[in-house]
Amino acid sequence: MAKAHNSSERDILNRYEKQPLGKIFKIFGKYKFLMIFGTVTFILFNMIGLVMPWVLKITIDRVLPNADYLLFWFMCGALVIIYLVRFLLRYVATYLMDYAGIRLIVDVRQKVFKHLQSLSLRFYQEYRTGKLISNVIGDVAMLNMLMATIQRATEQLFQLMLVTMLLFFINWQMALVVLLTLPLHYLNFYYFRGILRSDYMLIQEKMSEISANLSESLSGVKVVKSFAKEHAESRRFFRNLRPMVELQMRVTVDNIYLAAASDILTVLTYLCTIGVGIRYVQNGNISIGEFVAFYSYVGMILTPILALSAMAATVSQGVVGASRVVHLLDQVPEIQDPEKPVPLPELTGHIEFRDVNFYYKKDDHVPTINEFNLTIKPGQKVALVGPSGSGKSTMLNLLLRFYDVDSGSIRVDNIDLRRLRLEEYRSRIGVVLQEPFLFAGSIRKNIAYAKPDATDEEIENAARLANVEEFVNDLPDGYETVIGENGASLSGGQKQRLAIARAILKNPSILIFDEATSALDTLSEALVQEALDRMMEGKTTIIIAHRLSTIRNSDVIVVMQNGKIVQQGTHDELVSQPGVYLTLYEKQRKMAKNM
After folding, report:
1. For 171-181, where are the alpha helices, taking DSSP H only?
2. In this structure, what is the dihedral angle of CA atoms 503, 505, 511, 514, given to the nearest 10 degrees?
3. How many structural domains compose the chain?
4. Which helix (H) or strand (E) holds 152?
5. Residue 471, burial from CB neighbour count under 10 angstroms (0-12, 13-18, 19+)
């Protein structure tokens, strides 16, 4: 039954239903020869199966009346050979189709993952991680289902044509009567395919939402436990699952209607065959053996029709998954390499911000960064300070070209960033973020992430400079210790030191530290700061820090407020004049006294 959808369901359907089939089937292009060869093999397999009703006809009309055992044993021998060939064809066809399906899933997942890596941070701010996991795992898996269904449908259609020809060969008048019921089967399939596709679209979207919520809850399990919200999260998860019951039952009911309609049409076809067959046998137009063969072939013509009707659900699921994958692949990377990139020589580290304006959202009236101008000389150590929300981290995101400026330009060694290859440019920059991310491997592998071909000596030297050795030597497996997801087994300070060691190993031309020592205790901060000072020697360095004590020795301190530079100078110069910097400095000094 057709259903009215609410506005949110309608929005979901509109988002994916407009995907052209050409785009969807283009995904299978690489495997078309495997699919064709596998399908042809399956068709040959089915063609051999069509001999059985004809053998039945010969048995009834010739073997039984004449007790012709010679003909009987000949047919037995022929059938053994035929079915051995049929087994071989089934093996080849199944192997080819499964191989194509497995390769398809691997290749498309790789393509989707590579595409995701190219998308900007803005995309990830709007698209939840759990939904992306659902796309890569669940939706891509449905492509294999769609491929198998296409192959199966093609095979069934060929069988339909071959059996139809045999029916006309036996008796064309009876064949016409039977074929009059076929349009009804097609209408049944077409009607329910549309309904089921809408249902599966909503189910997949809801499942991706559930996946996103699950990912979020598991990632924040420490916060959940800290606030004793385990039961609340369980209830929220159950509330998200409840709509799935209605959606799944909707599909169940639709499939019941589809099966019931198919059964009624099947019975109707058989009754027409028997009714017409009785008359033709009585009139002597066909023999009993021919009628039995005809009746068997009607069963064989209904088999693909019923199979095609049953495919309404799988076709719908497959097209939904493919539509969602195509929709994701259609997302255009906001940040792209130029068509003709400028070769990047060794960087001196000269950085220039020229009249930079930037809006996080295009419809914002006030820019996040407003008319920002700053020149950083090679080897200079520049600190960005200011209250939260003043635009400090945004400036680093623009420098790393996670976003592009809306107007103005950022130049490195007098080359606009937009003219450089992203990978080549970013490989020259070392970054330590405020919240370091570590992978669920060993300590050695996490440090070596910056330089996979680094020697053990280089890795351990970087660890020594970042004061990582202090805790690594106390671990039973040393550098081979597996630290868990995002360094779950390490303290905040230990994770930060690992991130610093990773940056040291990279030996970049430009260094960026976003609160790099914020998670360290006083002793570790002093030791790491000394290592960082040696590391920063001769390198252009940009530091974001809330603790002004860590930037006193900076060559230039840039004070930001509301996306603008409001003060600029050395520490001594800035504390000698009223302004934002002096206010921040006085507050931190009072806090230090009260501790």
Report:
1. 172-179
2. 10
3. 1
4. helix 140-170
5. middle
> What is the distance between the alpha carbons of residues 57 and 412, in angstroms, rounded to a whole number?
85
Assess if residue 359 is contained within a domain. Answer: no
Output DSSP code: residue 347: -
- Structural domain includes residue 458: no
- Nearest by Cα to 541 from 516, 510, 500: 510
Under DSSP, is residue 439 helix (H, G, I), strand (E, B) or coil? Answer: coil
From residue 588, give the alpha-carbon distance in Å to each of 457, 522, 592.
41, 16, 6
What are the helix (H) ranges across 433-521?
Answer: 443-448, 456-465, 469-472, 492-506
Which residue ranges in the chain fall short of pLDDT 70? 1-25, 27, 49-50, 52-69, 71-72, 194, 197, 216, 218-229, 306, 308-313, 316, 362, 485-487, 516-525, 527-528, 531, 591-595
In a domain, 512, yes or no: no
- Residue 357: the pLDDT is 92
Rounded Cα–Cα distance for residues 447 and 456 (Å) = 10
Give pLDDT, residue 2.
45
**Are 516 and 532 spatial neighbours (Cβ–Cβ below 8 Å)?**
yes
Contact yes or no for 421/341 (Cβ under 8 A)? yes
538-551 pLDDT per residue, tens: 789 898 877 777 78
Q: How far is Cα 310 from Cα 324, in angstroms, rounded to an integer? A: 23
Tokens of 166: 């045999």
The per-residue pLDDT for range 81-104, each reduced to its tens digit, is: 777 887 888 788 888 878 887 888
DSSP string, 193-204: HHHHHHHHHHHH
* Measured distance CA(44)–CA(42) in Å, rounded: 5
Domain containing residue 266: 20-329
**Any idea what the CATH number is for the domain that residue 278 is in?**
1.20.1560.10
* 231-245 pLDDT, tens digit each: 777 787 777 777 777
Q: Please indicate, yes or no, if residue 576 is contained in any of the structural domains.
A: no
Q: Name the one residue in this structure whose structure tokens are 């006030």.
A: 366
| Cα 581 from Cα 558, distance rounded (Å) | 9
For 490-523, how does the pLDDT look when each residue is reduced to its tens digit (9 = 90+)? 777 778 888 888 888 888 888 888 876 665 666 6
CA 388 – CA 424 distance, rounded (Å): 32
Inter-residue contact 295 to 62 (CB < 8 Å): no
Please answer whether residues 75 and 55 qualify as being in contact, where contact means their C-beta atoms are separated by less than 8 angstroms. Answer: yes
Contact 100, 35 (CB under 8 A): yes
